[in-house]
Specification:
Elements: H1 8-18, E1 46-47, E2 92-93, H2 103-107, H3 121-124, E3 146-151, H4 201-209, E4 233-238, E5 242-247, E6 254-258, H5 264-273, E7 283-287, E8 290-291, E9 309-314, H6 319-333, H7 339-343, H8 353-357, H9 361-368, E10 409-414, H10 422-425, E11 429-437, E12 442-448, E13 451-455, H11 476-483, H12 485-500, H13 503-506, E14 517-518, H14 527-534, H15 551-560, H16 566-595, E15 612-615, E16 618-622, H17 635-656, E17 661-662, E18 666-671, E19 674-680, H18 690-693, E20 694-696, H19 709-722, E21 727-730, E22 736-739, E23 746-749, E24 755-758, H20 780-784, H21 800-828, H22 854-857, H23 862-880, H24 887-900, H25 928-958, H26 967-976, H27 984-993, H28 1001-1025, H29 1032-1044, H30 1057-1070, H31 1086-1101, H32 1110-1117, H33 1121-1132, E25 1134-1137, E26 1156-1159, E27 1162-1165, H34 1171-1186, H35 1189-1207, H36 1212-1227, H37 1231-1248, H38 1254-1269, H39 1273-1290, H40 1296-1311, H41 1315-1333, H42 1338-1353, H43 1357-1375, H44 1380-1409, H45 1425-1435, E28 1439-1442, H46 1445-1468, E29 1493-1496
Parallel strand pairs: 1-2, 5-9, 14-25, 17-24
Antiparallel strand pairs: 3-4, 5-6, 7-8, 7-9, 10-11, 11-12, 12-13, 15-16, 16-19, 18-19, 18-27, 20-23, 21-22, 23-24, 25-26, 28-29
Helix pairs in contact: 11-12, 15-16, 16-35, 21-23, 21-24, 25-27, 27-28, 28-31, 28-33, 29-31, 34-35, 34-36, 35-36, 36-37, 37-38, 38-39, 39-40, 40-41, 40-45, 41-42, 42-43, 43-44
Length: about 1500
């Protein structure tokens, strides 16, 4: 990549020329290039911009405002910085990273066909131009204006005066940075894990009660304002773009905005995507008659400047170029066709947002301003209304009117006359095409070196001579325009529509997302698809003869890229991510081919289950126990689980990322009942025996064991982060061998000299609850819960999250024990003799040590807090071993270490030996004591899972801290806490016994549904293995009938009889011995299947299901059949036809074989992370939780740019980033920007997670709120109705999140004066809130108030009074008489009473005087939009707190006081010991000074 190749010294010289450096800084070997601003200066962000270029990129500029025209007033002129003497001050944001995104690049890996081989990394991974492909108009496109270079130098904390705005987070990703300290738990789960948290009204009300908890800090210890950020230095280099004129044949010249950093190739891509030049692919660009090199940067082109004219020159075709051209034309013709998304190919996926917003939200916002009360049709479809039992499937994929494709051609395909014979080749013929136009004219076309022309061939007669009209066109589109008027008209309309679509609807996703339903589609002729099916197309390799990608080399080379500074790390992470997503796609395609029987085995003579395959440089093996390898571990069951465990190991070692240690690319694919493992191939491994190659570890589970010093050294570096103990084992010759991993982990040095580790299936310690060992007794908690239980295999491991949580828990215990002993010492002896390294006494320590675990934070008393601070001092002193600590203090630490099972007696350090309890592994006599301790530690960990993690999960669910909505989100929530899915039965038992059983009803239903579908999936897997390909759809539909249909005796439809009978006779003669009967599946009955499901639930999950049929299950547990269908389809990869199924009919089965459309692979793979971007994101979240919205917004913008750089435009984490940005912009009052970001978040969530994923439902709700705030009422309603429909389909009505959704819908309907409809939704919300939060909760009080307001608008004052009284009672009991909420409610009651009395008087007057009564006009309150929006904000957890000037003064004083208190501890904290964790105390929101009001985000709320 161009900008990464500039050497650091050049950057430094350039920066020094531009930036004044300050003398007070150069304390490190690297001089930072930004001087901190004087503390007196304001910290307003400065806005840096290139000249007048609109920002049309995929990302927001760092200042967070979309384009230069939407800057808020207070920000000065574009290009000026506000509040800084120099535009280069520390607040100078507005830096753009060149982004890694380009449509064409993502849709079809770089059309120019450069292969992503390591040598061409800079070229192949060029930052391609993002805007080009996005612009609907032919206006000038903007380019990246400024580049940022980061130096990994660290500043000396506290050496320079406090800086008002610490701009960058400390960074843990550098090789030289100390590893993140143990005990850091991030404040929120990582973005990729889908947490369903929403704004929580009770949180914000708690805030008013004064019971706010301080936000838990995340693992980044984000620097406070006034303190220097340790970490990257940032140089912002202004890079002015300029515009050039493009002259293309046949169209008017137009100008294009470019940047010197770009490559010539990027202009090519722009032209291939523009509406008027999209039909050209084979051309070069000329400046003053000289051709520009494809891969040169624009700044290196001599004479290229503002206003230069670039001429588009048509180049002669080659076969490769002609094929690329035809493919490009086909892509243009298919650009609106969703069939690729339904078929799950080429990383296409579905999005339906545009159906509900009617195009782009931004424009309609401007159009519809002022039309607040337009008449709107608000009535939702019947099935969306509360109480409806109907759950239709068809609305899931509404038919988009753009999809009725405009037919440009009937057929475009390769001709049967290809390839040209030798004599025609010498005339320049490259290939022949056959076309049937929309007017039914059949023509043959020659692609020659000069272009395309008609020839005289017919289907049966070859005549290559040109036909009339003798028109030679360089572009196929121009030729077709000549011969078909319909093509000309429709192609133009199609391209107009194509460029109007939102880019996020058409960019390819990084990994394939499959849809579990699809409409009946016409199967159209498609030459490119046909060609792709029969060539092993991977990118464009078939154009580069004989070359397939060397996946192993690519995967390992990208890991070896340098990573010293930010640009290098970005380039490296981007390369790693790109290769991984390509590898996952190729491995998936290969695995499907292997199972379908299209790949020849490398050991064809062995039986099928033992065969192995190599395809496209990837090694494939099936999940069966070959040669009794896993005999002692559970046979085939163990062989099925091992690949998933191995993948987890690979994921973990990749995350630790030790230089010099290599893992294999690994993908696990489940398809048609088979599990296939795909791995990259170690160079040379196929040429030698395994015995010779393995130089570390064991190939026979511990009988023969070898070790190697280099491996020990490399693995030693992973042992601390992975908590793996270095230990000794005995081999078959009774020799002691030292290992730093489990014995199964093998080390092999490849022919490339790299050190590989493989078979990482036991990276983590065994789970003793599922591993009965003779003579070992588990702790009492385990025995009480019925453990140990024998599982089907002996490979049950604890999850990494559990190991981390357990160590975290022990660390807390260690601190408390030591603090207690110190207190006792102090009591016996009044002063502390401990001498400390920085000379200050520990008792002066002002900083409370906040515990890392959330549950414990609130329990710490201030006394013990200073005690813990002392312990930390001590531990650091002893660990540094400078003899400063006295013997008694050492004793304290030693005792605490011993009590918690630390392997060191001078510092807290817990590690596990993964070989304990491994069958066949023996330990030397000398280690017996260590082995005993390790066994105890494993028992404690197993008990910790049962006594802390599972109850913690249930408590979080009761408090609605997590809100899973379907099986996948429940599984995610369990895994984050380290609870394996095999504990699902235990979780459900605990839910059943919970005192708050009713409030956990949704968790119970989701859990039961998950348990049933997982058990069914286990049965389905073995069921499918006995089905041959021709019977697949019949077998799957039969299984679904047995599983879900009420029809009592479904009959399987075998393939058509007359075919079968002939085959049968033949087959009897030569049936291979031992072949399974391929029709065994046909005899399954619903009774048998449900009996097996209940049995599987008992055996696997230890849970008793009380149901014998699907109808009983639905009745007993309150499940929905449509939800079960969705869950089983997603888990097994089945795709079914989009239509209404009559599950409950007792007269005919619900499914026929025509309803099963496809079966997709279910893929597990490693998803590499963008570490720098993630740190920025976490810091931004932390800032926002502290109330520093602007700084948070800047950090998150920065994170967004970095995410874009690594992942491209589409990724789960970018989605989280956009959502948070949208929320921040909304809180800061920039509705347009909020709308734009949230629209991207919705589109991305639909594309990357699925159209009905719980996360997508959340995104729809947020978007509806921002639409309402922007006065787009009808759009807001249709989005809310869509969200409600999806939630009904995914779970049903009875979910706590439904109360929030219905409150939203009710409020919007109230705003448009649809009172009766509004009441239906609000009263349902009230019922759901009462059930899940208890009748006395503040949420319920708010719900009562909302209902009362609607009754008031209807003038039904009696009902209004009744509801408001309920609310008032709750406020009074919960908050007390004097609370603001109670007073508000009391005022409102008075007001209602007055209105009711006035109404009664009027009625009496009418009764007395009849029609002559003198009636004063009644005041009925139609709700104002502002009041509705205010209520919407409250229920969505966004609270604005007005602050008076006096409050501001108090806040500032408080902040200053805290800074002084922290100063002492700050200086010492530079040398951080990895063991200790110490999140900063949180300052109150300082934002107040720059904003008239402070907004509360619903994140752990904070006392203002």
């Amino acid at each position: 990549m161009a900008w990464a190749r500039v050497c650091t010294s050049c950057w430094r010289q350039l920066a020094e020329a531009v930036l004044p450096t300050s003398a007070g800084i150069g304390l490190e070997e690297r001089t930072p290039l930004l001087h901190p601003a004087p503390a007196s200066e304001s910290a307003g962000p400065s806005v840096l911009r290139g000249p007048g270029s609109p920002n049309a990129g995929f990302f927001c500029p760092s200042n967070g405002f979309g384009s230069s025209d939407s800057l808020p007033e207070g920000h000065g002129e574009v290009g000026l910085s506000t509040g800084h003497s120099s535009p280069w001050g520390p607040g100078a944001t507005g830096a753009f990273w060149p982004t890694a995104v380009l449509l064409a690049d993502l849709e079809q890996d770089a059309r120019q066909g450069e292969c992503a081989l390591p040598g061409s990394a800079p070229a192949g991974l060029a930052p391609l131009k993002p805007e080009a492909s996005l612009r609907a108009s032919p206006g000038p496109t903007s380019c990246m204006e400024a580049k940022v270079v980061a130096e990994a130098g660290t500043r000396n904390t506290g050496s320079v005066g406090p800086e008002p705005e610490s701009w960058l987070p400390p960074h843990h990703g550098r090789p030289e940075a100390p590893e993140p300290r143990r005990g850091q738990l991030s404040a929120e789960p990582e973005p990729p894990s889908v947490m369903l948290l929403n704004g929580d009204c009770s949180e914000s009300l708690k805030k008013e009660e004064g019971a706010a908890e301080p936000p838990r800090e995340n693992g980044l210890d984000e620097a406070e304002p006034g303190d220097e950020a340790t970490g990257q230095e940032v140089i912002v280099i202004q890079d002015t773009g300029f515009s050039v004129k493009i002259l293309a044949p046949g169209i008017e010249p137009f100008s294009l905005q470019v940047s010197p950093q770009e490559m010539v190739q990027e202009i090519h891509q722009v032209l291939m995507d523009r509406e008027d030049t999209c039909h050209r692919t084979c051309f070069s660009l000329h400046l003053d008659g000289n051709m520009l090199d494809h891969f040169s940067e624009l700044r290196s082109v001599e004479g290229l400047q503002e206003g230069s004219v670039l001429r588009v020159v048509e180049e002669p075709y080659t076969v490769r170029e002609a094929r690329i051209h035809v493919r490009h034309v086909r892509d243009l013709l298919k650009s609106l066709d969703p069939s690729d998304a339904f078929n799950g190919v080429d990383c296409n996926s579905l999005s339906f947002l545009s159906v509900f917003t009617d195009g782009d939200l931004g424009d309609s916002g401007k159009r519809k301003k002022g039309l607040e009360m337009d008449p709107i049709d608000c009535t939702p479809p019947e099935y969306i209304l509360p109480g409806s039992r109907e759950r239709p499937l068809c609305p899931l994929q509404p038919q988009n009117h753009d999809w009725k494709p405009l037919q440009c051609l009937k057929v475009l395909t390769m001709s049967g006359w290809n390839p040209p014979p030798g004599n025609r080749k010498m005339h320049g013929d490259l290939m022949y095409l056959f076309v049937i136009t929309a007017e039914d004219r059949q023509v043959s076309i020659t692609a020659s070196t000069r272009g395309f022309y008609l020839n005289q061939s017919t289907a049966y007669h070859f005549n290559p001579k040109p036909a009339s009209p003798r028109f030679l066109s360089h572009s196929l589109v121009e030729l077709l325009n000549q011969i078909s008027p319909t093509f000309k008209k429709n192609f133009a309309v199609l391209q107009k529509k194509r460029v109007q679509r939102h880019p996020f609807e058409r960019i390819a996703t990084p990994f394939q997302v499959y849809s579990w339903t699809a409409p009946q589609a016409e199967h159209a002729m498609d030459c490119v698809r046909a060609e792709d099916a029969y060539t092993s197309r991977l990118g464009y390799e078939e154009h580069i003869p004989g070359q397939t990608r060397d996946w192993n080399e690519e995967l390992q080379t990208t890991r070896e890229l340098p990573r010293k500074n930010l640009p290098e790390r970005l380039l490296r992470e981007r390369a790693i991510f790109k290769v991984h997503s390509d590898f996952a796609a190729a491995a998936t395609r290969g695995a499907v081919a292997v199972v379908d029987g299209n790949v020849m085995a490398i050991n064809p003579s062995e039986e099928t289950r033992m065969q192995m395959f190599i395809w496209n440089n990837i090694f494939f093996s099936l999940g069966f126990d070959v040669r009794d390898h896993y005999k002692d571990f559970g046979g085939d069951v163990a062989a099925y689980v091992a690949p998933a465990n191995d993948l987890n190991g690979v994921r973990t070692y990749n995350a630790v990322d030790v230089e010099g240690l290599y893992t294999l690319g690994t993908v696990v694919v489940d398809y048609r009942g088979y599990r296939v493992t795909a791995q990259s191939i170690i160079p040379g491994i196929l040429e030698r025996d395994q015995e010779q190659s393995v130089i570390y570890g064991s190939i026979d589970f511990g009988k023969t064991v070898v070790s190697h010093p280099r491996y020990l050294e490399l693995l030693e570096r992973t042992s601390r982060p992975l908590k793996i103990l270095r230990h000794r084992v005995l081999n078959d010759r009774e020799e002691e061998v030292e290992l730093c991993s489990s014995v199964e982990c093998k080390g092999i040095i490849g022919n490339d000299g790299r050190h590989y580790i493989l078979d990482l299936l036991r990276t983590f310690p065994p789970d003793l609850n599922f591993l009965p060992v003779a003579g070992e007794v588990l702790p009492e908690e385990c025995v009480r819960a019925g453990f140990p239980r024998a599982h089907r295999h002996k490979l049950c491991c604890l999850r990494q999250e559990l190991v981390d949580a357990f160590v975290e828990h022990r660390y807390l215990l260690f601190m408390k024990l030591a603090a207690l002993q110190l207190m006792q010492q102090k009591a016996s002896k009044m002063e502390t003799p401990t001498s400390l390294e920085n000379g200050s006494l520990p008792s002066l320590e002002p900083k409370p040590e906040v515990s890392p675990g959330p549950e414990v934070g609130s329990e710490e008393e201030s006394g013990s807090a200073s005690g813990l601070a002392k312990v930390k001092e001590l531990a650091e002193t002893i660990a540094s071993d400078d003899g400063a600590a006295d013997p008694r203090s050492r004793e304290v630490i030693r005792n605490a270490c011993k009590a918690v099972g630390s392997i060191s007696s001078t510092a807290f350090d817990i590690r596990f030996n993964p070989d304990i309890f491994s069958p066949g592994v023996r330990f030397p006599e000398s280690c017996q004591e260590e082995v005993r301790d390790q066994k105890q530690l494993l028992k404690d960990a197993a008990a910790f899972l049962l006594s802390c993690q599972i109850p913690g999960l249930v408590k979080d669910c009761t408090d609605h801290a997590v809100l899973p909505m379907d099986g996948a989100t429940l599984a995610e929530v369990m895994r984050q806490r380290g609870i394996n899915m095999r504990y699902l039965g235990k979780v459900l038992d605990l839910v059943l016994r919970s005192p708050a059983r009713d409030q956990l009803d949704h968790i119970y239903k989701i859990g039961i549904g998950e348990l049933i579908t997982r058990s069914a999936k286990h049965i389905f897997k073995t069921y499918l293995q006995g089905v041959e390909l021709s019977g697949l759809s019949a077998a799957i539909s039969h299984f679904l009938n047995c599983f879900l249909s009420s029809y009592p005796n479904p009959v399987a439809h075998l393939p058509a009889d007359e075919l079968v009978s002939k085959k049968r006779n033949k087959r009897r003669k030569n049936r291979p011995p031992g072949a399974a009967d391929h029709t065994a599946w046909a005899v399954m009955t619903p009774q048998e299947l449900w009996k097996n499901i209940c049995q599987e639930a008992k055996n696997y999950f230890d849970f008793n299901l009380e149901c014998e049929t699907v109808d009983q299950a639905v009745e007993t547990y309150g499940l929905q059949k449509i939800t079960l269908l969705r869950e089983i389809s997603l888990k097994t990869g089945v795709q079914i036809l989009l239509k209404e199924y009559s599950f409950d009919s007792r007269h005919k089965p619900a499914f026929t074989e025509e309803d099963v459309l496809n079966i997709f692979p279910v893929v597990k793979h490693v998803s590499p992370k963008a570490s720098d971007a993630f740190h920025f994101f976490q810091s931004g979240q932390a800032k926002v939780q502290q109330g520093f919205l602007k700084e948070g917004c800047e950090l998150i913008n920065e994170a967004l740019n970095l995410f874009n750089n690594v992942y491209g435009a589409m990724h789960v984490e970018i989605c989280a980033c956009l959502r948070l940005l949208a929320r921040l912009h909304y809180i800061m009052g920039d509705y347009a920007e909020a709308l734009s970001n949230q629209q991207k978040a919705v589109l991305m969530s639909e594309r990357v997670m699925g159209i009905e994923h719980p996360n997508t439902i959340q995104e729809y709700m947020h978007l509806a709120l921002y639409c309402f705030a922007s006065s787009q009422l009808s759009t807001a309603l249709s989005l809310l109705y869509r969200a409600r429909y999806l939630m009904l389909l995914v779970f049903g009505e009875d979910h706590p999140e439904m109360a929030l959704l219905d409150n939203n819908i009710g409020l919007v309907l109230h705003g448009v004066m649809e009172y009766d409809l509004s009441l239906r939704f609000l009263e349902n919300a009230l019922a759901v809130s009462t059930k899940y939060h208890g009748p006395k909760s503040l949420k319920v009080a708010l719900s009562h108030h909302l209902v009362a307001r609607v009754y008031e608008s209807k003038a039904e004052f009696r009902s209004a009074l009744q509801h408001e009284k309920e609310g008032y009672t709750i406020y009074k009991t919960q908050l007390g008489e004097d609370h603001e909420k109670t007073k508000e409610s009391s005022e409102y009651l008075k007001c209602l009473t007055q209105q009711a009395v006035a109404l009664q008087r009027t009625m009496n007057e009418i009764y007395r005087n009849g029609s002559s009564a003198n009636i004063p006009p009644l005041k009925f309150t139609a709700p104002s939009m502002a009041s509705v929006l205010e209520q919407l904000n409250v229920i969505n957890g966004i609270l604005f707190i007005p602050l008076s000037q006096k409050d501001l003064e108090n806040l500032k004083a408080e902040v200053a006081r805290r800074h002084q208190l922290q100063e002492a501890s700050r200086n010492r904290d530079k040398a951080e010991e990895p063991m200790a964790t110490e999140p900063e105390p949180v300052g109150p929101p300082e934002e107040a000074s720059s904003q008239p009001r402070v907004a509360k985000d619903p994140s752990p709320s904070l006392q203002g």
